[in-house]
Automatic annotation (TrEMBL):
GO terms for biological process: malate metabolic process; tricarboxylic acid cycle. This is Malate dehydrogenase. The keyword Nucleotide-binding does not apply. GO terms for molecular function: L-malate dehydrogenase (NAD+) activity. It comes from Orbilia brochopaga. Keywords: NAD, Oxidoreductase, Tricarboxylic acid cycle.
Length: 343
């Protein structure tokens, strides 16, 4: 009996090791000690595709790394204290760099209210990544995503290393919420509820396309309430946390899903599609250079950007409102780097 159990354990370990040997990916989390950073790092520790986890923060990363390193999966976890050479070491050779570093909202604040603090944090972390590992896929979680992603693009352009295929604003939480909220309304399994959400990541820039969901019949006040809940889902959490921050656990899951999808695509899996805020041709003719839509991922990052598809008159109006705000948010990010370039 004992030897059978041991054999089973060894077999599981062997499988985990061979899967990882084929996909030896390092992932770095910048802002790893925060509300999102900690559970996100834990989820990444559970991924058989991740062989090395680099955790960087201005405070507490070695402690978080020591803690997570005891989880009995085989990946190596290293914590980095704040110093330029440590940051460079943390991101070096990473396939993916996730940035949840930055302050979260308090009740009464918009995501744009975070700009003054988070813009320079993201600029500097992006600049360090552009210098030490420009080919990494850069996943931006820090808000306001509609502006922080253009900030990263500008930083990479200044260093002559910009590749639009490797820069992603993480909007996965919007589809996670949409799927859950619609399943609550219809009493269905959320796993079967796929809702396309396009645009950006704040308020009216978040545009759920319910006409393309399993429930195009949702209409009138019920539709308005559902759309509003998806657009302002973040506020529900900010209000409930009452000054202690914004979504962290659901966001960790969403960030992990996006990173894992990129690793699956890197490992050769076909047909991996995630919604994400990228440098997109869809509305460039209207002066909007970044837009979230379904994106097929490949080994190099963005493989194919899907259009918004067939939408109804109501959704066309939502997109018009979205584009107005989005344009301003993007311009704000671009202007910030022009006036405050990285040193
Ligand atoms: N994209 C999304 O859907 C989404 C969802 C939720 C939250 N967010 C955003 O994510 C960000 C983080 O949220 P949180 O709840 O984890 O906040 P938090 O305050 O709990 O954690 C932020 C962490 O960043 C660290 N940090 C600050 N400056 C840093 C720097 N220069 N280098 C490295 N680390 C640094 C802090 O020390 C802290 O540990 C916020 O801006 C929030 O608005 C985005
Ligand atoms: O709402 C926030 O400020 C955090 C995040 O963008 C969210 O959507 O939960």
């Amino acid at each position: 009996m004992f030897s059978v159990r041991r054999a089973a354990v060894n077999f599981t370990q062997k499988r985990a090791f061979s899967a990882s040997a084929a996909n030896p990916y390092k992932v770095a989390v910048l802002g790893a000690s925060g509300g999102i950073g900690q559970p996100l790092s834990l989820l990444l520790k559970l991924s058989p595709k991740v062989t090395e986890l680099a955790l960087y923060d201005v405070r507490g990363a070695p402690g978080v790394a020591a803690d997570i390193s005891h989880v009995n999966t085989h990946s190596v976890v290293k914590g980095y204290t704040p110093a330029p050479e440590n940051l460079a070491e943390a991101v070096k050779d990473a396939e993916i760099v996730l940035i949840p570093a930055g302050v979260p909202r308090k009740p009464g604040m918009s995501r744009d209210d975070l700009f003054n603090t988070n813009a320079s944090i993201v600029r500097d972390l992006a600049d360090a990544t552009a210098k030490a590992n420009p080919n990494a896929k850069l996943l931006i979680i820090a808000n306001p995503v509609n502006s922080t992603v253009p900030i990263c693009a500008e930083v990479y352009k200044r260093r002559n290393v910009y590749n639009p295929k490797t820069l992603f604003g993480v909007t996965t939480l919007d589809v996670v919420r949409a799927s859950r909220f619609i399943s609550e309304l219809k009493n269905t399994n959320p796993a079967n509820e796929k809702v396309t959400v396009v645009g950006g990541h704040s308020g009216v820039t978040i545009v759920p396309l319910l006409s393309q969901s399993n429930h195009p019949e949702i209409s009138g006040e019920q539709r308005d309430a559902l759309v509003h809940r998806i657009q302002f889902g973040g506020d529900e959490v900010v209000k409930a946390k009452d000054g202690a921050g914004s979504a962290t656990l659901s966001m960790a899951l969403a960030g992990y899903r996006m990173a894992e999808s990129l690793l699956r695509a890197k490992a050769g899996e076909e047909g991996v599609i995630e919604p994400t805020f990228v440098d997109s041709p869809l509305f460039k003719d209207q002066g909007v250079d970044f837009f979230a839509s379904n994106v097929e991922l490949g080994p190099e990052g963005v493989k194919k950007i899907h259009g918004v598809g067939d939408i109804n008159a109501y959704e066309k109006e939502l997109i018009e409102a979205c584009l107005k705000d989005l344009k301003k948010n993007i311009e704000k990010g671009v202007e910030f780097v022009k006036s405050n370039p990285p040193q």
